[in-house]
Design goal:
The chain is of the alpha+beta class. It has six helices and twelve strands.
Length: 271
């Protein structure tokens, strides 16, 4: 069987079934003492194109996608470990600009590695600390589903052959983590990530797309692109956040638009 047949989610499930990994479907690993850690890699021509993004924005992006996982864990970031793979012919001024973009997040680079590579590679590990990590397993029937900001900016930017800067929702994550039953960041598209929450929590998730706040210039189908890095949380009281759906008895997830079922795509590696 090839990876293209199994897919990213199938691979993760199979690793867990074989006892080769555990808890890897959550946003971050939970360690003793409230420590949480997460890691993401960005590969040139897979996650970004250098003719569509500046080096500074790429640095921000590499840090932000990891900090988003800490936000979904309600964590305060303590530092980043950055591995850089680059060609020897890379202009060093571009590398400095990249690290300046990372520094804009105001989270310090504490270590990492550098290596020669045929294409640009950034692998970032973010480490933080959280008093309470909601995880993805606690959503209950009757919960509201809320998001922390407008969605679709990444898909709209991609249609313009560019990349949107991911938001940092660390403060919102800490606020929601105090009481949310479940929470994750929207990195693969709201359809895919709602399914993650439904599967892990053992409930039926309904997303009403007309309730989803859209970013400027975004269309409904842009919600299937992913890479919005807003937070999706299951809560009893929505408070100040946008309500986009609910949890019910049952299993799986349903997207509706104007009361009718609606199909959205999403991102899954290897497919």
């Amino acid at each position: 069987m090839q990876l293209s047949e199994l897919g990213e989610l199938g691979l993760l499930a199979e690793l867990e079934r074989r006892g080769l990994a555990r808890g890897i479907d959550h946003d971050a690993a939970q360690l003793d003492g409230g420590v949480v850690a997460t890691q993401d890699a960005l590969v040139e021509d897979v996650h970004f194109r250098l003719d569509w993004i500046s080096w500074r924005d790429l640095g921000w992006r590499a840090a932000a996608v990891n900090l988003s996982d800490l936000a979904a864990s309600g964590a305060d970031p303590e530092g980043l470990l950055v591995t850089l793979g680059a060609s020897p012919e890379t202009d060093v001024r571009n590398i400095f600009e990249l690290y300046e973009g990372i520094a804009e997040t105001e989270v310090a680079v504490l270590g990492g590695d550098t290596t020669q590579a045929d294409r640009l590679l950034l692998s970032v590990t973010a480490i933080g600390r959280s008093p309470r990590v909601p995880g993805r397993t606690g959503a209950r029937p009757g919960d509201h589903l809320v998001v922390t900001g407008p969605l679709g900016a990444a898909g709209a930017a991609f249609r313009r052959e560019s990349f949107a800067r991911p938001p940092l929702r660390l403060a919102e994550g800490r606020e929601l983590a105090a009481y949310a039953h479940a929470m994750l960041d929207i990195s693969d598209g709201i359809a895919v990530d709602a399914e993650h929450l439904a599967r892990r929590s053992g409930c039926h998730v309904v997303i009403e797309l007309e309730q989803v706040p859209l970013a400027a210039g975004a269309e409904i189908d842009d919600l299937g692109f992913g890479e919005d890095y807003e937070l999706l949380a299951a809560v009893e009281d929505p408070g100040r956040f946008w309500v986009v759906g609910r949890c019910e008895d049952g299993e799986g997830s349903t997207l509706t638009l104007g009361g009718e079922p609606y199909e959205l795509g999403g991102w899954q590696h290897f497919r």
